[in-house]
Design brief:
By secondary structure, the chain is α+β, with helices and mostly antiparallel strands. Its main location: membrane.
């Protein structure tokens, strides 16, 4: 622990960053003030660098761009490979592991070593990897890189250590799984086919051993050739040549027949007795047309032929539908006897796999389920019931049901909030699922000791909100809220939605939630805000709507002479709209020249509506069109349940709403917030041209604006959702609206160039909020996702860096200063204040922090009747870059929580014994101080800088320049280890933590290169050292920066491998064993070993030792599996040492033999010599 003592006199002038093109830190009015009385601040800081370590914890959601599927029928775990090289391994709920290939190559195929705790992956870079699953974090043990051939198919027989690998050239190689070395045994394509064949058979698309005889390998070539290869005799038993291309092959369990799927939508059944022609050819979905011909069908990509003891065999395949119907949904077909069931899917089928009771391919399979991997979903169908219901998926695979547009993360929530949300959400769950238990139930997972309530909130493009229980590294849906139900549904081709060209008018930009009062606030893309209250009872309600005209122009602002009593603020009635219920707007709500004016983007329902239990809308706030100009997007939001106030802002100004009285108490432009304390010199604005030309200009760019908004949100969604997630940029022309933002020109030329991957972030006007849209910029501005915006980056970077560092900050006449962050709290509005009062802290895009005092009636009755008054702006603080976050500490360094109202159900039945009065919980800055009114510390963080101020003296205690070459995207004051720190995420991928209040760097890790807008706009910190971001359009990645959590991570993760006895094979009986061939006497080692087959060519493949050998196994969890793993490691190490000892012994023996030989030669040479001859 370190004790900091700072004397306030002259501190601001000596600290770095204190000399800026702005007033000193202690100045509120833009001129130097007298230094405050010297005082010492004693803070015992407990956090040190050893408390921090950054690591990934768990990944939730559906694997993005899946490519392959595998299942271990004994361990009952499922593996899914993806195009980006990721592998997700799933077991019972809680067992969810993510692995990533370092190369990032797509995973073509997966093969479990059944009941061995290992997995083989074949990647698009022609490399095989062996993963060890006997540890909580799987690691690669071996890799084998093919140099001259491309891998197309792999097959690993059950209980075999020899992996068959088919290649694009048509050859089949064999790999020893234990050593991961190629065998010298190779089946060349020209030996597999007849010599008279003139064409190449094509790549290998299928490999499987015969259920009847393991010494026979069935090889399927894409061109239509099928060969059964006798591994012992090294020759072909039979060859089949078919006209149609082959996609897959599946054996009958007796090994006497097999089925093939073809590119013409047909299935062929072949028997080993007669391989000259197929025993049966069927077109399951091919109807006979009037002219007698079969209609053309799509290819059947995969077929599985499974037998059952109690019923007819199952034939399950994907594809094969006819081409006659355009836009038909992908389907999985189940043929059971004479019944054909077609299961239509919402997304294309990537892969499917039938789950069977036995791992042996020569036994009756008895299928019980089929796993279907879709492009954006995973479903499991119950085959034991005639209607084939699906199982209820316990994994959170529907995060992307509608594209995620914002995220919020809350750790250490009130313990009662999760059960109540779950109970409400459970009433709306879908029904019709299979009643059987989820079949993928492998692995073990226990609730760790370091758990606490956690909730993740996701906002979506369709206006829906999802609450997730994220406790103990799991994710379970609690409750879903649809914000679109508040508004009238626009008719297709009519209404405002059609005029605006907006596809997702209800898309969520940001959310604000108070878990204690259960008040929830949503900001939407159509410049609307919805405030919700939670109730356990349904109710009939009339939705109250407020309309705010937040489109201020300098020439429209009331001058101080017109409002002498309050020079900083106008009268509430002059600019603030009066509250009223939303009514249908007539077409006459336009200006005489035809431009829209004073109408919102959406229409609120004006009838009484019945709302179910849960979150119920209490107030809707909408920004209005002004003179044909659409409302600007809302960039910041904060609410406080104790005050009953809600504040929001955009690039035009700030508004404060009293949601208890349903009134607007403040609506003001950003420029008017300063009054006489404006730190910038603003140039005089030239007179505006006539309204007609402006309106025409607006209307001309109107469709462009909203189509641009649509493009921006859709482009952001594409970067979140589209499968073609390549890195090609999508350029979009900015609209030329008169409300476009122009950043100030600089006075000095000192460009600072950032890496190109972060260039697209600089097109974002405001960085601290969780939303996926940009404000409208100047004419001709382009947005490129995610790169290729160097010139745009330079312009914004230079304008910000130069304007804020120049000695005289001059602002262009078209500048719009956006409100970037808001925070309610108890503070001191003036230096002379003796007691803290309710205040609103306002941060702007020009690095200015403004403190606005509020006067709120304390009595319950007075609060509901008397107006809340807003005082003139108090302190004005200056920082470099846009202000991102405010935080408050007491003078002992403890975090001051915002006051809140204890939740009460307004719809609960009247109880005479229970009061209906509001119950407030306050955390006054002076409550923990020995001396009343000692003050508190205010932490202000911007894109470049962090400062700590002492209130009420407004003196700057500490300054830290966070970054010079980049900029901060997210910052938050978080609690960790019973202390507090400032956590920052920079555009260059660095995650940093700073101590509070001294702002000492505690951690700086280059976590990830920022190559995607999605990461930047969904990254958020929370308490207890956790954070998350959207790693792909469908997945949430959680990380921790706490050393304690990293140490306990192994305990909290699930165990993939559990020791299970391999089921015994069925007794085949005397006759079956006598006539069924000698499958059980087949010795692969004798055929494929080095002694018999020799060594493979070194240039064919290269063996690469993995990083997850002994070191990876050392982190295996304690318990039986951990002990077994450690025992295996010890045996391996012992064997290695014994091998080295044997080598040394052999060298010694060779040396001894050489010495003996030389001694014998010397003896013979000297044998007949006399003594005097020596």
């Amino acid at each position: 622990m370190k004790k900091f003592r700072k004397v306030l006199d002259g501190l601001t002038t000596s600290s770095p960053g204190g000399t800026m093109g702005s007033p000193s830190c202690g100045s509120a009015a833009g001129t130097p003030t007298a230094a405050p009385t010297p005082k010492e601040i004693d803070v015992q800081e407990t956090l040190v660098s050893e408390n921090f370590q950054l690591c990934k914890t768990v990944r939730h959601g559906f694997p993005y761009q899946p490519t392959s599927l595998a299942f271990d029928p004994v361990q009952k775990i499922l593996a899914i490979g993806s195009r980006s090289g990721g592998v997700r391994i799933l077991g019972r709920p809680g067992v969810d592991c993510y692995c990533q290939h370092e190369s990032g190559a797509a995973v073509l195929q997966l093969q479990f070593l059944i009941n061995e705790g290992a997995l083989v992956t074949a990647c698009a870079d022609d490399t095989l990897h062996l993963w060890n699953l006997r540890q909580r974090r799987p690691a690669v043990l071996h890799s084998l890189k093919f140099n001259r051939e491309r891998i197309t198919f792999c097959h690993l027989p059950f209980q075999s250590k020899w992996l068959y690998v088919g290649t694009e050239r048509g050859n089949t190689h064999i790999v020893n799984i234990e050593s991961f070395i190629l065998s010298g045994y190779v089946i060349m394509w020209n030996k597999a086919i007849e010599l008279s064949t003139k064409t190449h058979p094509g790549p290998v698309v299928h490999l499987s051993d015969s259920p009847k005889d393991e010494g026979k390998l069935l090889i399927g070539f894409e061109g239509g050739t099928i060969v059964q290869w006798d591994l012992r005799a090294k020759k072909a038993d039979f060859r089949i040549y078919y006209d149609e291309a082959i996609h897959s092959v599946s054996w009958h369990h007796e090994g006497k027949q097999f089925m093939c799927s073809h590119s013409d939508g047909s299935l062929t059944l072949w028997t080993l007795r007669n391989t000259t022609k197929p025993f049966q050819v069927t077109f399951p979905h091919g109807k006979i047309q009037k002219d007698g011909r079969k209609e053309s069908c799509k290819p059947i990509l995969k077929v599985e032929y499974k037998t059952s003891r109690s019923s007819e065999p199952f034939v399950i395949f994907s594809g094969g539908l006819s081409y006659d119907k355009a836009g038909r949904r992908p389907a999985l077909t189940i043929m059971h006897g004479k019944a054909i069931t077609v299961l239509e899917m919402d997304y294309p089928i990537v892969e499917f796999m039938v789950l069977c009771e036995t791992p042996y391919n020569n036994e009756v399979q008895d299928p019980y389920a089929v796993v279907v991997l879709l492009e954006k979903d995973l479903i499991v169908v119950d085959l034991t019931q005639s209607n084939f219901p699906v199982f209820e998926n316990p994994y959170p695979m529907d995060i992307h049901e509608s594209p995620v547009t914002c995220t919020a993360y809350f750790a250490d929530c009130p313990p009662d909030i999760i059960p109540i949300l779950y109970s409400i959400g459970a009433k709306n769950k879908k029904t019709g699922y299979s009643h059987k238990e989820w079949p993928i139930g492998g692995g073990t997972w226990t609730l760790g000791s370091h758990t606490y309530p956690e909730i993740i909130i996701t906002g979506h493009a369709d206006g829906s909100i999802k609450f997730w229980d994220a406790s103990a590294f799991t994710l379970q849906m609690l409750y879903k809220l649809k914000t679109s139900k508040v508004f009238e549904k626009p008719k297709p081709g009519e209404g405002r939605a059609a005029e605006l060209g907006e596809e997702d008018p209800f898309a969520v930009q940001m959310v604000s939630w108070c878990p204690h009062s259960r008040i929830f606030c949503v900001v939407g893309i159509s410049a609307h805000i919805i405030l919700y209250r939670f109730s356990k009872y349904d109710a009939n309600t009339q939705i109250v709507s407020l309309e705010v005209r937040l489109q201020c122009e300098p020439e429209d602002i009331i001058t101080p002479s017109e409002n002498e009593n309050n020079p900083c603020f106008s009268e509430p009635g002059s600019h603030s709209p009066q509250p009223h219920h939303q009514h249908p707007l007539s077409p006459g709500s336009r200006t005489p020249d035809g431009a829209k004016d004073s109408i919102p983007c959406l229409k609120v329902k004006d009838k009484m509506v019945r709302v179910p239990p849960g979150y119920q809308s209490d107030l809707v706030i909408q920004l209005l069109w002004v003179d044909g100009e659409p409302p600007q997007q809302i960039t910041s939001l904060d609410l406080n349940s104790a005050y009953g106030l809600l504040a929001f802002g955009n690039c035009n100004g700030l508004a404060v709403v009293d949601y208890l009285q349903k009134t607007v108490i403040l609506c003001i432009s950003t420029l008017d917030l300063y009054g006489a304390t404006d730190p910038y010199q603003r140039l005089t604005r030239s007179p505006r041209r006539n309204r007609q030309s402006t309106s025409e200009h607006c209307m001309r760019g109107l469709s462009n604006f909203y189509s641009d908004s649509k493009k921006r949100i859709r482009t952001s969604y594409q970067s979140l959702t589209e499968l073609t997630d390549n890195q090609q940029s999508i350029d979009m022309e900015r609209s030329k609206s008169p409300t476009s933002v122009h950043y100030p020109t600089s006075l000095h030329n000192d460009p600072r160039i950032l890496p190109e991957p972060v260039a697209s972030l600089r097109a974002s006007h405001c960085s601290p909020v969780f939303y996926l849209l940009d404000n409208v910029k100047g004419p001709g501005r382009k947005l490129s996702l995610p790169t290729d915006l160097k010139t745009d980056l330079e312009s914004r970077e230079n304008s910000f860096s130069r304007s804020r560092s120049s000695s005289v900050s001059s602002i262009d006449r078209d500048t719009k200063e956006a409100i970037t962050t808001l925070q309610f709290g108890e503070s001191y509005g003036r230096k002379s204040d003796a007691l803290p009062t309710p205040c609103l802290w306002v941060g702007t895009s020009l690095g200015v922090g403004i403190l606005i005092p509020l006067s709120i009636p304390t009595d319950h009755e007075e609060r509901m009747e008397d107006p809340v008054t807003v005082g003139p702006s108090g302190a004005v603080q200056m920082l470099k870059g846009s202000v991102l976050r405010f935080g408050f500490l007491d003078c002992n360094g403890a975090l001051i929580q915002s006051p809140y109202e204890v939740w009460r159900d307004l719809n609960a039945p009247e109880d005479p014994d229970r009061t209906r009065r509001r119950k407030l919980v306050h955390f006054s800055p002076s409550s923990s101080q020995d001396a009343f009114g000692e003050g508190h510390l205010a932490v202000v963080c911007s894109e470049r800088q962090a400062k700590v101020f002492l209130m009420p003296s407004q003196s700057c205690l500490f300054v830290h320049n966070i970054t010079e070459s980049s900029f901060v995207l997210r910052a938050d004051v978080v609690s960790l280890c019973n202390s507090v720190c400032l956590a920052c995420f920079c555009a260059n991928g660095h995650v940093m933590t700073l101590s509070l209040p001294s702002l000492r760097p505690l951690m700086d890790v280059n976590y990830l290169p920022l190559t995607d807008m999605r990461i930047a706009r969904t990254f958020c910190f929370t308490n207890e050292g956790q954070a998350l971001y959207l790693s792909s359009p469908t997945e949430i990645q959680r990380i921790t920066y706490s050393q304690e959590m990293c140490d306990n991570l192994q305990e909290m993760l699930g165990e993939l491998f559990t020791p299970i006895e391999t089921p015994e094979a069925q007794n085949r009986g005397f006759l079956k064993g006598f006539f069924g061939g000698n499958a059980h006497t087949f010795d692969r080692e004798e055929l494929f070993g080095e002694a018999a087959a020799g060594k493979a060519s070194r240039s064919l493949a290269q063996h690469i030792p993995g990083q997850g050998g002994v070191e990876g196994m050392k982190v295996a969890a304690s318990g039986a599996v951990g002990e077994l793993a450690r025992a295996r490691i010890a045996l391996d190490e012992r064997g290695q040492r014994l091998g080295e000892l044997e080598e040394r012994t052999a060298l010694m023996m060779t040396s001894a033999e050489t010495f003996s030989k030389h001694a014998h030669e010397l003896m013979l040479k000297c044998k007949d010599k006399k003594w005097y001859q020596f």
